[in-house]
Amino acid sequence: CGKTNLFIYPGYQWQVVEGLITNFHLPRSSLLMLVSAMVGRERLLSLYQDAIALSYRFYSFGDAMLILPEARDVPREQGIGNRE
Predict the structure, then answer these.
(1) Per-residue pLDDT for 47 more than 60?
(2) Which in 26, 35, 46, 61 has the greatest CB count within 10 A?
(3) CB-CB contact of 63 with 25 (8 Å)
(4) In the chain, where are the structural domains located?
């Protein structure tokens, strides 16, 4: 176990990661910055707007999402996680 000075934020150049499974994080958190670094601010806002509209649960014991940075947006009615 050691230390790191790595802080992943928007603009970070990913080298190995092809996707990310994560939950919906608190505003202004380093975890939210990590997700934003992967998908960009506008797509992140869109994901969160959809999650709110579909009554997803947030934070540590909430719903999860699979983020693929190169994936195109899928219309909500075709999404796997549709709760309607």
Answers:
(1) yes
(2) 35
(3) no
(4) 20-69
